[in-house]
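Field guide to reading this record: the first block holds the primary sequence, the second block holds the structure written as discrete tokens, and the final block holds curator observations. Each block starts with its own label. This record concerns Putative phosphatase, catalogued under organism Streptomyces lydicamycinicus.

BLOCK 1 — SEQUENCE
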Amino acid sequence: MTDDDRTEYGEKNEHPHEDQQESRSAQDSGPGQECGERPQPRPERAPRTLAVPDLSLVVLIGATGSGKSTFAARHFRPTEVLSSDFCRGLVSDDENDQSASGDAFDVLHFIAGKRLAAGRLTVVDATNVQSEARTQLVRLAREHDVLPVAIVLDMPEQVCAARNAARADRAGLPRRVIQRHQRELRRSLRHLEREGFRKVHVLRGPEEVAAAEVVTERRFNDLRHLTGPFDIIGDIHGCRSELETLLGMLGYSLVRDALGRPVDAAHPEGRTAVFVGDLVDRGPDSPGVLRLVMGMVGAGHALCVPGNHENKLGRYLKGRKVQHTHGLAETIEQLDKEDAAFRTEVGEFIRGLVSHYVLDGGDLVVCHAGLPEKYHGRTSGRVRSFALYGDTTGETDEFGLPVRYPWAEDYRGRAAVVYGHTPTPRANWLNNTLCLDTGCVFGGAMTALRWPERELVDVPAERVWYEPTKPLLTEAPGGADGRPLDLKDVTGRRIVETRYMGRLAVKEENAAAALEVMSRFAIDPRLLPYLPPTMAPCATSSEEGYLEHPAEAFAGYRADGVREVVCEEKHMGSRAVALVCRDETVAGERFGVPKGVSGALYTRTGRPFFDDPEATESLLRRVRDCAEEAGLWDELETDWLLLDAELMPWSLKATGLLRKQYAAVGAASGAAFPGVLGALDAAAARGVEVAPLLGRQRDRAADAAAFTEAYRRYCWRVGATAADAGAPQEPGGGAGLGELDGVRLAPFQILAVRGRSLAGLAHTEQLALLDRLIAAEGAVAARDGGTAGGATDRPGLLATTRRILVDTGDETSVAAGVAWWQELTADGGEGMVVKPVQALIRQADGRLVQPGVKCRGREYLRIIYGPEYTRPENLRRLRVRHLGHKRSLALREYALGLEALDRMADGEPLWRVHEAVFAVLALESEPVDPRL
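BLOCK 2 — STRUCTURE
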């Protein structure tokens, strides 16, 4: 087996900076200090600085009484230190019970493993003078891909004995125990690095220990403090000319030497280039690529991680035996034309490369062949091997090349992983990973990713520089949609990271309830990128006869520091989300749906509004044509729109609710009260004193009539039976859903377009765009002959959302807002929604302000709270409303909805978008008063 083969399958890492983290011994053994001899007196030394990587397993080594616990308490946090004595006490109630040592170390190793898995610095406080004990700890560090560090406290025997004698629990410790520890320690000192410790610090005598200072150092791969922006460039393979062109497209200015060769490139806006490796081999000018990249890295204008081809070239330059295959022979021939100084510089550059970088606060990982989340920020030969080569199944394909395990299909990490190594025809996001190797040297393209914009930029190859061993894949791994949805993505207790409210929890029982709805009733998840949040009502009003009143809504926003709000008419319909694609081709290419589908129309629980797909397509066709007429496709630079809207009439979706609940109450009152009132009137005519009872029953009958009138306002016939789209109908009236006569859609927000979330756009701008969409319907209807939305003498499909702006700090403006609401509700309107004009508003303490509160009309609330809710005694009871949970739920669902939109706009895979969408539905099953 050649050296090249051994490295492919995970040979011990030789990288001097990353795996060893500047590994060196600090034993300071001088003359007269051979193994087993007592240290000789020496002059006082300067204070020692002990460098410890911020993620490592620190093993304290020293005889009993050497001061390890005191040293640990002085230099490390209490939570970082695991003491064998303490663990012995945990399992036996006696820290000196040596018979419990086996169980104690089992506990210690278990806790240490959990801490290392969580990425926590861990210190083991035990004697650790025996090689067997240290071997277990080194193995534990390797299992978690962290560096083991040894700190040795080599104290004279007399010092250890004196310290033990001063402790009541150690006063009787035999001197031979200390002597045995000392002998074992001296035998170990020369072999600690060979055992696997990457750093060894030896402190001799109390003076050195007292003068020592422990300093944690950042791992070489930890560049989270660098936030970019970055331009990440895929595999180059000696294609210098294409690299120069790509850098120019990205906005970099090249710097050339006296011979005209590019030796640096800088961006005027301070962007940083990041190279994913494989700079060399196969292409026409590997030295030219190296000269440019090394110059950019040296000047601080770029970062670079090694590829497997650099790794192999580095071993060749060190004199190792490697096979001159896969383009290395061409690189060697090209380098032979360079001077020795350049070749030496190349070797040093390659040796200094770090396997991967964690950037931008941990949101971005760059490596050559990809990296699972468990390896991010870790340091070991295994991590470096995976970053260089990926993971193989042990098989070879028909071309004799190793079959690689598709790690990206299982990736679920928060950080985006950008890599190269495996050439594909085009770059596609797959589960928050992106392969940038688009086969430039094979005649494909050289591709870069702008971060954080997530914009791809590429230049075509000038020619085929090297014939590939096998054809490029016909499709990038996983395709445009990434891996299929997985049940594990949504079941159990879930934590969803959001950009606006941090980590949000979903309870297991709520996830189970959402799964029932999503799996049985929801539309195709590819067409379900968003679910709207619930909306909290305004604070309870103290106005006579009112449960909700605009004054409380305005006062609430004024208290949150929001001056300008928009009051939008609340349509009495059903919340609807419309995904409208410009044509079927866009729907198929972007969302992966079959032919004949151009979008979706669904409820706030993800169910389709219409059972008839043609009814959905007719509605989408009208909206699509109006967007074309209004010029929105071109203005918004998109080929699809995601709209938040209300679909009317209410009876279109709520027929069952109306028939079984509201209509039943109206019918019962209509049957009961005439007889009751007739009997009481007859009794009064006979002179019976029933006036108080008669008055109460007349009031009740009036309330019942008002209740019936309230819900009937929101019901009318649709389809072929809609003789008059505005005529009320009794619940259960036939509705031909194959036709849209009488159906009204009132869009009030454009949520997202291709590549952008518009949730942060001011509501006034949103409504202005939608006004144009609605205004265009007249021209579209005239062109279509009045189809798909009603004849030209009846209302069209699209309905305007009326609104008024209110300054919450101006009493006159507030009064005008109240008057507008009163007029709206007096005419039978449901009420209004009050929203800050500017979206995504935060309070002074950083918390999100409610995106909107609903203020419902007095008569509409009769439907919700019952016919007699306005009676004083009932209002007093109903005013005790606990709104805190509802408001919290509204904000959490809002943050999850924003996260889903952002993930979709960023081009993240379906499972990532669906994770946030599913969480919204899960939160809907939290217990809350349904009347709020």
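BLOCK 3 — OBSERVATIONS
DSSP finds 29 helices and 35 strands in the chain.
Residues 655-685 form the longest helix (31 residues).
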